[in-house]
Amino acid sequence: MSFEQEQKKPTAVVLLSGGLDSMVSAGIAKERGFAVQALTIDYGQRHRRELQSAKDIAEKLGLERQVQMSLDLRSFGGSALTADIDVPKTGVADDIPVTYVPARNLVFLALTIAFAEAAGAKDVFIGVNALDYSGYPDCRPEFIASFAETARLGTKAGVEGFPFEIHTPLQHMTKADIASECARLGLDPAWSWSCYDPAPDGAACGECDSCRLRRKGFAEANLTDNTQYAA
Q1: Edge-to-edge strand list for the sheet holding 35-42
Q2: Which of 79, 127, 76, 133 is nearest to 105 (CA)?
Q3: Cα-flanking dihedrals φ and ψ of residue 53, to 5°?
Q4: Interatomic CA distance for residues 163 and 158, integer angstroms
Q5: What is the pLDDT of residues 189-212, one digit of tens each?
Q6: Angle at 192 between CA 186 and CA 198, to 5 degrees
Q7: DSSP assignments along 86-143, one per residue
Q8: What is the C-alpha to C-alpha distance for residues 60 and 168, in angstroms, rounded to an integer?
Q9: Contact by Cβ (8 Å): 211, 229
Q10: Element (H, E) at 70
Q11: For the segment 126-158, what is each residue's pLDDT rounded down to a tens digit?
Q12: Tell me, what DSSP letter sits at residue 45?
């Protein structure tokens, strides 16, 4: 279906990592009336458990389509998630942590836009957050706005007058807000996976930045997170 044709239920593409934020973003996209397709990227991440969570979320939410593609960023390294570097467990700091994957959202959004253009969708959802997060530069509003303009200039749809809208529904939410939104949408937190360094028994470590932020959010929202934590 072309961009010129009306769609009874417009299609949106969600970048679905399998984490809490991406799950809530997918739930919001569905709530807003979109026919949702999802892109999940296996980039050789240490926490490969999130790939199964992404598949589970797509099935639980009844998404129209999920595409999982492989892009081995371990070939580059440069991050505790893609190289043999220890994941920090001392708490969220003010600097950009070693769990930052070089240009990850820049690369992933480019692929998501390509998927959306091929699917005839002009709406893209990504679960970035700029409040309770680890300080990654590719989660900031100015990056998203700049990328949307790049997508307009660099795609057939964009130059023909059908620019993409990049939705960031969680951009200005705290983790407590996101936990509350998860509950409001009727989503089970256990479907998602946030931990960067799972324990040998499969439990979430409970100590990495992502675990700390998730636990803090559910605690502040007075909600139960039924994730199993090792610590």
Answers
A1: 65-70, 35-42, 11-15, 123-125, 165-167
A2: 127
A3: -60, -40
A4: 4
A5: 999 999 999 999 999 999 999 999
A6: 150
A7: PPP-S---SSPPTTPPTTHHHHHHHHHHHHHHHHT--EEE----SSSS---GGGSHHH
A8: 22
A9: yes
A10: strand 65-70
A11: 999 987 666 788 889 999 999 999 999 999 999
A12: -
Q: Position of tokens 């929202």?
A: 221
Structure tokens at 169: 């529904």
Residue type, 29: A
Helix (H, G, I), strand (E, B) or coil at 167: strand
Token match 């797509």: residue?
A: 58
The residue to which tokens 């993409």 are assigned: 164
Look up residue 119 and give its two tokens. 């699917």
